[in-house]
Amino acid sequence: MKLANLGGRAVIVTTGGVIDLETASHGRFPAHPDSALTLIPEIRDWLATARPAPDTSTTLIDLAADATRLGPPVTAPGQIFAIGLNYRAHGTETGLGVPDAPLVFTKFPSSVAGPAEDIPLPTTTCDWEIELVVVLARGGRDIPAHKALDHVAGFCVGQDISERTGQLAGTPPQFSLAKSHRAFSPIGPWITTLDELDDPTDLTLTCTLDNETVQSGRTRDLVFDIPALISHLSGVVELRPGDLLFTGTPCGVGFSRAPARYLSPGNVLRSTIEGLGTLANTCV
Ligand code: ZN
Predict the structure, then answer these.
(1) Which of 15, 107, 128, 174 has minimal Cβ neighbours within 10 Å of its Cβ?
(2) pLDDT recorded at residue 240
(3) In Å, what is the CA distance from 253 to each residue of 20, 204, 234, 258, 262?
């Protein structure tokens, strides 16, 4: 199931069209995307029995080609966790290696943006980081790794846009603020539930800048996998429905290149994860 935010309303996206959850269920399910994502098992059961007819005027193909009508599939996450240096090759390219325990920071929630939203560049040193984003449907504390995926609504594509001057200005550097400028956390194009993926532990990630591939990786190379991250985080904080987890970026970011390379106004950043779809954000 693919759960999206179309014009501010929760919809199921299918190849045959979209299903507005509140309208098609006659009010049984909420219209707000953030509320709907906590009800995925119930929505799945309802889809199988009620078999609502999709609105054929807008299909998955249409929205995949042009996601400008889609908002972020989670509009106001209570918490956003992000993991640094979680792919070995990225640890190597930065010269920092990989940590012994997950390196956790936040992207403040006001940085969330839609899958085709423009990204204003506050400086000339803004960088790309494609990441698999986990959306939580159920919260909790002390979640054991073997039960972690029961708490997951699904996955989506994310960009951890990073303003490197601010990030690397101090000693030690700080991550959270410089990764939280306006629209620095585009997510989408929709939440894909894990049952739609052949192997949720091994998805290819591809990031292109003006059609040149700048990042290519596989999620099987995560140093700390998703169950381990959920277990680790929930051992400290209470996780809540709608929380997001940015799981880290593979190698190929701009600031590790020689010479360093950054985003410029007019650049189109496309971020694709196998089975999850594509973000297409224009830098302005
Ligand atoms: Zn990142």
Answers:
(1) 15
(2) 98
(3) 38, 16, 29, 11, 9
Ligand 1 centroid to Cα of residue 222, in Å, is 12
Q: How far is the CA of 26 from the centre of ligand 1 (A)?
A: 40
User: How close is the Cα of 50 to the center of ligand 1, in Å?
Assistant: 41
Q: Where are the beta strands (DSSP E) in the chain?
A: 2-6, 9-14, 17-20, 70-71, 80-84, 103-106, 112-113, 126-127, 130-136, 152-159, 162-163, 185-192, 204-209, 212-218, 244-246, 268-273, 277-282
* CATH 3.90.850.10 is the classification of domain 74-282: yes
Whether pTM > 0.85 for this model: the answer is yes
Both ends of the chain: CA-CA distance in Å?
33
Quote the ligand 1 centre to 22 CA distance (angstroms): 35
Distance, CA 248 to ligand 1 centroid (Å)? 5
What spacing in Å lies between the alpha carbon of 246 and ligand 1's midpoint? 7
Span 125-140, pLDDT tens digits:
999 999 999 999 999 9
